[in-house]
Amino acid sequence: MADNLTNLAENALLDTLVGTAAFNPTTPIKLALVTSNGNDATEGTEVIGGGYSRQTITFNAASGGSIGNNTTVTFGNMPTTTVVGIEFYDNANVRLAYGPLTASKALTSGDTLQFAPSAITLTLG
Q1: Is 40 within the bounds of a domain?
Q2: Residue 74 belongs to some domain of the structure
Q3: Is 106 a domain residue?
């Protein structure tokens, strides 16, 4: 996902880069699933129901302007829904990034949705 940082995250990273403010998202970082995508300023529509809940996502070290998840992220006991995108939140519920899936995922009640290591990447550039 390139250029999918929220306005808040973009400004915070720029401030941190030039030393005018520090930005320290609270961990763990959580991955949310959405049924309609958001944008830089507006959240998407998050999945509700079933056993859905945001899941912790961890990352490898950045390289070449990109960073990817380093473990499998699993969402179990999903409701009947179609997932079209993902969003990242810190532990204080601050939305940091978002993006569409390359292909929507139609799920039925009880399904599991998994993202393998390196399946989710954030890219600057």
Answers
A1: yes
A2: yes
A3: yes
